[in-house]
TrEMBL record:
This is Mechanosensitive ion channel. Residues 191-257 form the Mechanosensitive ion channel MscS domain. It is found in: Membrane. Its main location: membrane. One of its GO terms (molecular function) is mechanosensitive monoatomic ion channel activity. PANTHER family: INNER MEMBRANE PROTEIN, YNAI-RELATED MECHANOSENSITIVE ION CHANNEL. Gene3D superfamilies: 1.10.287.1260, 2.30.30.60. Signal peptide: none annotated. Keywords: Membrane, Transmembrane, Transmembrane helix. Pfam families: MS_channel_2nd. The chain crosses the membrane at residues 20-46, 58-79, 142-163, 169-188.
Length: 369
């Protein structure tokens, strides 16, 4: 190419670059304008006091993805106007197509959050009798993670399969899929087992979100259920993390499996001389006025007579395990105070009996109770 041809070709190439930049910037600008108009109107509508949760959730979750998706979408429509050669145009088309798939997948993931907001608004987890809601939320959490994983997987697969080289590699891998699947199966046995356990827990539900469990000697509530593990929030704010297989293979206590109501047990040890009926009447008086008692069970029984003491067992009922614990502590404290105040001689004691001397010397015998 001569210098004169190069001089003539330079303005032409510069013109192509400028025209292509105008198309790209015009498409992006048109998409941003469309996003600004749509979400501007949505913000104005959401200022109303009776604005529904749907529009508020859409504005909250889809604003950021739309700021990318709508410009790329507009650019994809205007892209054929770009005056490029076949190879540069193919490169630009691939870039725009990949961005379009990525931003659309991002929007789908955020749409899952919108659906979750609507479900949580309709079914509130904080209600007292929330067994049905906890069942639904446990399934919803697992399904949400599964859907998000599928969206990301499909988006990455679509982007990669748009390249001819990757398609050829994928075809070659499919021919050896049997060997690969066996190798992966052996290498990921525990991970696959946890995934299957996750499906079983989500739909048979031996545990649910917010269930009260006693696991490994620890009392806590189910805070999170993932694909591979369960997070238990212990009463003292610690977190116990256990694999999903644990809840399939090992025994544990679920205090809210069918209902949250629970019986609380209090043991008090006293002397044999304690008037049981007086303590029983005091228990009934205390519990009747107690805000944590649910009016189901209030029982005092002598469950054992040991060598030195009587064992009194008090059963009181409450709406849930937290209230049952507080009620037990309060009843124990007040009954011990009642016995100390009215029958202090009936607290556990050890007696010693001294016999009168039978001779110049004397003998002492002791009886301990």
């Amino acid at each position: 190419m001569s210098s004169s041809d190069l001089g003539l070709d330079l303005p032409y190439r510069l013109s192509l670059v400028l025209d292509t930049a105008a198309v790209v910037l015009g498409g992006l600008g048109l998409g941003l304008l469309l996003k600004w108009l749509l979400f501007g109107l949505l913000r104005v509508y959401n200022r109303r006091p009776d604005a529904p949760l749907l529009t508020q959730s859409v504005a909250r979750w889809l604003s950021a993805p739309s700021a990318w998706f709508l410009p790329v979408l507009a650019l994809s429509f205007l892209l054929p106007l770009a005056p490029l050669g076949p190879k540069p145009f193919e490169v630009l088309r691939r870039v725009v197509e990949s961005l379009l798939i990525s931003t659309f997948a991002w929007g789908l993931v955020r749409t899952v959050n919108v659906v979750e907001d609507l479900v949580q608004e309709h079914y509130r987890l904080g209600e007292a009798d929330n067994l049905r809601v906890r069942k639904l939320f446990t399934q919803l959490q697992f399904v949400r993670k599964l859907v998000v994983s599928l969206i990301v997987f499909l988006a990455v697969a679509l982007i990669l399969m748009s390249f001819a080289t990757v398609r050829k590699i994928g075809t070659g891998l499919l021919t050896s899929a049997g060997i690969v699947s066996v190798i992966v199966g052996f290498a990921a046995q525990r991970s696959i087992g946890n995934l299957l356990a996750g499906f079983q827990i989500a739909f048979t539900q031996p545990i649910r979100l917010d269930d009260v469990l006693v696991v490994e000697g620890e009392w806590g509530r189910v805070e999170e259920i993932t694909f591979t593990y369960v997070v238990l929030r212990i009463w003292d704010e610690r977190r116990l993390v256990l694999p999903l297989n644990y809840f399939i293979e090992k025994p544990f206590q679920n205090w809210t499996r069918t209902t949250s109501q629970l019986l609380g047990t209090v043991f008090i040890y006293t002397d044999y001389t304690l008037p049981i009926d007086a303590v029983r009447q005091e228990l009934q008086r205390l519990v009747a006025a107690h805000p944590l008692w649910d009016k189901r069970v209030c029982v005092l029984q002598v469950t054992d007579s040991k060598e030195r003491t009587l064992e009194l067992r008090i059963l009181v009922s409450a709406a849930n395990s937290s209230q049952a614990f507080d009620l037990r502590c309060d009843v124990r404290e007040r009954l011990v105070g009642f016995i100390q105040q009215h029958y202090p001689e009936c607290l556990p004691r050890t007696r010693t009996t001294v016999d009168a001397p039978a001779a110049p010397g004397f003998a002492v015998s002791s009886v301990a109770e």
